[in-house]
Amino acid sequence: MTVAELLARISSRELTEWAVYERRAGPLGGRRGDIQAAIVAADVYNVNRKKGAKPVDPEKLLPTWDDYQSDDQMWAAIRQANAAMGGTEAD
Fold it and tell me: What is the distance between the terminal CA atoms of the chain, rounded to a whole angstrom?
């Protein structure tokens, strides 16, 4: 569905609940897939590396994207979108 369709069907509260869930459970969607792929790639490399070679950390295999935002920047964007839709923050 499009973003407009989603916003027409979901409340500000539910959208915030999903954001909190993702924060606790880990990333949803593509980012989670990137992490899973990096773990598998690191495992394959590490079990096949030459004796004495350093193991690779899965974090070193994660792709980087130009539009990366910190957690604080993402939460600020969520709060701004929430306010723009007339939502309020619950305690």
Answer: 30
Helices (H), 1-91: 3-9, 12-25, 30-48, 71-84
Task: Examine the pLDDT at 91 and tell me if it is beyond 60.
Answer: no
Is residue 32 within 8 A of residue 63, CB to CB? The reply is no
d(CA 60, CA 82): 34
- Residues 79 and 71: beta-carbon distance below 8 Å: no
What integer pLDDT is reported at residue 48 of this predicted model? 92
Q: Which helix (H) or strand (E) holds 60?
A: none
Distance, in Å, from the CA atom of 75 to the CA atom of 36, rounded to the nearest integer, reads 24
What average pLDDT does range 65-90 have in this prediction? 81
